[in-house]
Amino acid sequence: MKKYFLGIDLGSTTSKAVIINEQDEIIGRGITNTRANYMVATEIARLEAIYNARFSILKMKLDEEIKSKPEFKKYIEDIESVFQYLQFKRRLDKLIVQFDESINSTYESEKKAIIGNFVKTIFNKIGPEIKQEFIFANLGNKNQFFRDIVSERYNKEIVKLGKEYFEPMMLIYDKSITPVENELTEFDFKELIYEALEVLNEKYSYLENTNPEVSNIQFDIEMNILKGNHKQVHESIKEHITFIANMDIHIANMVGTGYGRALLPFPEKSIKSEILCHAFGAHAIFPKTKTVLDIGGQDTKAIQVDSHGLVTSFHMNDRCAAGCGRYLGYIADEFNISLNELGPLASEAKKEVTICSTCTVFAAAEIRELLNVGEERADILAGLHKSIVMRAMSLLARSGGVRNEFTFTGGVARNQAVLKYVTELVRKNYGDDLKINIHTDSIFMGALGGAMFARRSYKD
Amino acid sequence: MSKSVSKEKSMIIQKEMIAGLLKELGNAKETGKKVVYTFVPGNISELILAFDMLPVYPEINALQSGMRKKSEGFILDAEKLGHSEDVCTYVKCDVGMMINGNIGPSGEKIPAPDLLLLSYTGCFTFMKWFETLKRLYPNVPVALLHTPYQEGHKITPEMTKYMVKQLKEEVIPKMEQVSGNKYDEEKLKKILANSSKVEETIIKIFDTTKNRPSPIDAYFAGVYYIGPINNGFRGTPEAIDYYNELYKEIMDRVHKGLGPITPEGEMEKERFRLVVEGPPNWTHFREFWKLFYDMGAVIVASSYTKVGGVYDMGFRVNPDKPLESLADYCMNCYTNLNLEQRVELLSKCITDYHADGFLVNSIKSCNSFSAGQLMIMQQLELRLEIPVGFIESDLVDPRYFSYANIKNRLESFFQMLEQRKLILD
Question: Kind and range of the H or E element at A29?
């Protein structure tokens, strides 16, 4: 039986899981927001990585078809999107039940009825909207967690209700989302994947009868090809789907890391420091790495490694939020936009407004002042992104500077504006010849390092 | 870890010595003995003893207050007087204690000073500290002994001459005036002869960490070992006896192949050997220590145990040249060494005591230690290719001791060392 290895990175903001095979190849990734119940966060990430691994194996099996026939690629991506939607839907159903309970225990008589009706109307509206986005617009690929997807739409709706209902509607939301997030929703992969195939069948049958000219759905090339032959594609891959649905993904060993690692139900030897895991992950992907910068949710690390990938020193900022991912989260709230919109908006800047505050809370006050004096949002955001990177530069200097090659990891490395300033400032301070490495899986580097430790410490 | 914790004879002797001194201080007004407040780094205690006066060391009172959980209240009181958040917490703790009746950590009242002997060695805060004390005790004379920094990497004859001049023209006359005794050079020579014996024994004691396992922890237990010489007993016959006894006990451990004693008994398995730079945290001393011994980490050398005198590089007092010796002693103390000298000293410790790693405990409010620590660390990392670690805490302000952050960093550091051993061995 093939062996797989799991790394779990229980971070302060997000929990990540990575599954690798015996060749150190990543075959599964899972990520969720860390919540009060660490066990649930870990379990969600782990299960997601296992589901993702099944899809990866499916893609490996169909490698030739995927390469030669675009409709196969599209069809598998679609199954994954629908699968993600079905998982989302199970949680959403739970949330709706929880809303009822919260309303019943919080309000009485008339108010209960009014709030209840509002909630019902909102979910009747946003439920189908979200489904549409998952199935036709690939919402599952946008790095948003359950809470973000719901709250973004829910908040837009309650604004329309009038001021007097804002507070009670928010209160009910807060009371309901937390218990649902802290409880594990069980899924049966087999059940969900077959259901996903049915939904897909409906999707393409619907598309077959839809005229692209009058539809608001964006038809791409693959969709057009699939429209006519989705049944054939389905026929030719269904046995593979049955195979991956039934296969046993045998996790031979696992290692936990991250801030919450001590809370993981792993034996002591399977708990590793996130410094080592990040460095190991980064070094495994980019073997010439000498300096690693990791900007996570609640800390920033500068790590120096030797040619063996062994850590020789590290420095952390775990005192001040103004240099971490959370700062960006806070700023996104201030601007009333989602975290994912920050980087693109900052990249539209024509100049960088200098942000003086070194504190997250005070920076918010400064933003308001800057908006008052007429500075553009994009320009302010550019300045904020630069200020984070300036802090990281100072940490790097403290840790002995940047040595060649330099690898940038962590959730913040996904932000294009941060990436731009890191590249710019590292080159400016340490030379243009320096090689800068950034991987699409940068946020998973700690979990990857963990999985690699798990593989190396595994004994038959 | 063995559970049996028995008090060694040396520990009992030390306890009695300190209790005796505190009692003497408590009775000073009755016995008429004069009291000199001075600092540990570059302390010329032998000269104080030669005038039959009693020394008080404010840093020791502050650290004791920290260990007895009294420092936080004192610090808050000093802050109410206007001392800012960034001021050295030894100072604030000391000021807070004084304005609260000067009741020392043991519960006995510490007598007011008759002389403020400001031996200024590498720490600019000392000047400001005694300016504050001068305001609290406006009628007490101040004797300033300025120690030139070893900027040029060495002590020149001019530097020694400059210090001897200060001793002769500033310090000794004030001591004569306050104590009512004449300066007796023969008496000082005898006291220094005792110091010289103790210095030899101390070097032998801290050299025992060359053994595997190391019989002592040169940081957490080391700070106790240096207690007597830093707390008024340098040059006394009691100090000779204490250090002889301590050395005997440690050699006994060496012969039996035993590891260091911790608050929870004997450390049975030595896993990591470290050299530590910077003072310890005193408010959470036990918890801090436990983070090390639980991991099997033993400190084989530390810079803080050299704060009251550096003997590793060959310096010894010469009783035949008493004032020159005191001058050189002051100039040789750790915080008066330039940064390159500190790197050399630490590098020698890492090599001589076969350390696996080097760790800095950076103190938020201590400029004299913290300045240059990153440079020291990077130099050692590059020069010796050993793993280095960095943690942050404070001397006696409990608000700056984050157990979770320190634990997290130490765990990473120990895993770094372990991984290195696994792969390189």
Answer: strand A26-33
DSSP state for residue A263 in the 8-state scheme: G
Interface test with A, best of B415, B417, B418, B420 (most A CBs within 10 A): B415
Quick one: how far is CA A150 from the chain centroid? 15
Query: What are the pLDDT digits (tens) for B129-157?
Result: 999 999 999 999 999 999 999 989 999 99
Q: What is the mean pLDDT of residues A297-319?
A: 87
DSSP A100: H
Q: Return the closest-CA partner of residue B286 out of B4, B94, B73, B68.
A: B68
Q: Which residues of A touch B419 (CB under 8 A)?
A: 276, 310-311
Q: How much of chain B exceeds pLDDT 90, in percent?
A: 86
User: Are B181 and B198 found together in one domain?
Assistant: no
B86 touches chain A (CB under 8 A): no
Count of beta carbons in the 10 Å neighbourhood of residue A26: 21
Sheet holding B115-120, edge to edge: B54-56, B35-37, B115-120, B142-146
B1 band by pLDDT with thresholds 50, 70 and 90: low
CA distance A300 to chain B (A): 13
pLDDT of residue A231: 81
Which residue on chain B is closest to A319 by alpha carbon?
B405
Tell me: do B273 and B159 sit in the same domain. no
- pLDDT (tens digit per residue) in A49-79: 999 999 999 999 888 888 888 788 888 888 9
Number of domains in chain B: 2
Chain A neighbors of B412, CB-CB under 8 A: 273-276, 311, 314
Contacts of A308 in chain B (CB under 8 A): 423-424
A311 and B424 within 8 Å at the Cβ level: the answer is no
d(CA B215, CA B234): 24
> Cβ of A272 under 8 Å from any chain B Cβ?
yes
Portion of chain A with pLDDT greater than 70, in percent: 96
Nearest alpha-carbon partner for A9 in A265, A251, A258, A268: A258
- Do A107 and A172 lie in a common domain? yes
Beta carbon pairs, A and B, within 8 Å: 54
Which residue's structure tokens are 């693109």?
A: A344
Looking at beta carbons, which residues of chain B come within 8 Å of A400? Answer: 378, 381
My answer on whether B174 and B206 are in the same domain is no
The nearest CA of chain A is from the CA of B87 a distance in Å of 19
- Asked whether the beta carbons of residue B419 and residue A310 sit closer than 8 angstroms, the reply is yes
Residue B45 sits in the same domain as residue B178: yes
CA torsion sign for B358, B364, B367, B371 is positive
Note the pLDDT tens digit of each residue in A108-151.
Answer: 889 999 999 999 999 999 999 999 999 888 888 877 889 989 99
Q: Quick check: A311 and B419 CB within 8 A?
A: yes
> pLDDT digit string (tens) for B156-180?
999 999 999 999 999 999 999 999 9
Per-residue pLDDT reduced to its tens digit, B377-395: 999 998 998 999 999 999 9
Residues of chain B found within 8 Å of residue A313, distances taken between Cβ atoms: 377-378, 381, 387-390
> Residue B300 gets which letter from DSSP?
E
Of B134, B159, B186, the residue at which a domain comes to its end is B186
pTM of the model: 0.86
- Other Cβ atoms less than 10 A from the Cβ of A43: the count is 19
CATH code at A426? 3.30.420.40
Q: Tell me the shortest Cα–Cα distance from A403 to chain B, in angstroms.
A: 13
Interface test with B, best of A273, A294, A303 (most B CBs within 10 A): A273
Tell whether B420 is within 8 A of chain A (Cβ).
Answer: yes
The whole-number pLDDT of residue B311 equals 92
Q: Which residue has the higher pLDDT, A365 or B72?
A: B72
- Minimal CA–CA distance to A112: which of A127, A123, A102? A102
Among B377, B385, B412, the residue with its CB nearest the CB of A275 is: B412
